[in-house]
Amino acid sequence: MTAMRVKNLVSEQWGHATIYTDSSRMSQKQELSSLYKRSLSQLLQMIPETITVTEEDTMPVEEYTQPSLSYMSSSMFATILEDTIIQIRILDECNSELRIIKTLADIKLLRALKFGIAQPKTADELENIDPKNLECENYKIYKLDSDRRNIINAITDLYVEMTLNKNYKTLTSFLNSIFDKEHYRIALAENEAKNKLERRELTKQIRQLRNHIKTVLYDNEVTIDSLKSQVEETLEKIEKWMSKYDRDMEGIDIDMQRKKNHYQDMRDKRINFENTIEKHDLLMKQWINFKEEREKARIYRENMTKSAIIVQAWWRGLLVRRRLGPYRVGRKRRGRKKK
């Protein structure tokens, strides 16, 4: 007899009952789950922890032959990738603070898209970047969002290809793109070193120009002094005009206040008129409804009176024709014969 375990107690109007579970089925489920975990751990051990790329590996990754994986391996890899995609999407959807900050950073673009402003088909990534403010939080948010999207797209494409084609071409192409970007960054670093040398030469020229500017500034100080005297005279005139402006503005403010008071009075009158008109309209509607109801009652009484007269006339005619009721012909009484 197989061991049974109490699962639930049920009590109804018909009585009480106990629900048991089959321990054999529970043990089978536990064995299947342990087998799945062992196969998953073995598959994870097959994945190398680190991937090293040396300079000798000059051949692109795409040129290597990529044999198809077995159905079990591809399915297990796809299962792992599926869990990874779900976790990344949950991380992206649940981070409300980052989404709000990203929305505020892109508010200009979102407003332009909302009102249908045409956007350029090809946009330069460095167009809106300020070299003097590279530590800006918006740039970090853009970089974080871009990296997450690239990773999600790469993992999703790899998941689809592992599921359908049982290979990893998308992963190799993604790695090649990363290597190309790394080589591009190295080239940029070399160009930056060259630019530093050119910058040193330009700084020397700037020093020479500064010395020349100092001599020119000395000559310009004389003209500046004369201009300062003119500026002082102009400032005095401005003060006079400002005092006149203040006096005029006081008068204008008084007039505006009067106009506002007059406007408020007229507005109150208009509101009173509107309320009176609304009450009048309501009374008129009530009066019209009363007249209609009264006319309906009059017509109803008139129709009922006419109907009663017609019924009475018909009934009286019927009595006359058939000689019924008061119109019945009386029988002659036989009198006694006189002697």
Automatic annotation (TrEMBL):
<keyword id="KW-0969">Cilium</keyword>
<keyword id="KW-0963">Cytoplasm</keyword>
<dbReference type="InterPro" id="IPR000048">
    <property type="entry name" value="IQ_motif_EF-hand-BS"/>
</dbReference>
<protein>
    <recommendedName>
        <fullName>Dynein regulatory complex protein 9</fullName>
    </recommendedName>
</protein>
<dbReference type="Pfam" id="PF00612">
    <property type="entry name" value="IQ"/>
</dbReference>
<comment type="similarity">
    <text>Belongs to the DRC9 family.</text>
</comment>
<dbReference type="GO" id="GO:0031514">
    <property type="term" value="C:motile cilium"/>
</dbReference>
<keyword id="KW-0966">Cell projection</keyword>
<keyword id="KW-0206">Cytoskeleton</keyword>
<keyword id="KW-0282">Flagellum</keyword>
<dbReference type="GO" id="GO:0005737">
    <property type="term" value="C:cytoplasm"/>
</dbReference>
<dbReference type="InterPro" id="IPR042618">
    <property type="entry name" value="IQCG"/>
</dbReference>
<dbReference type="GO" id="GO:0044782">
    <property type="term" value="P:cilium organization"/>
</dbReference>
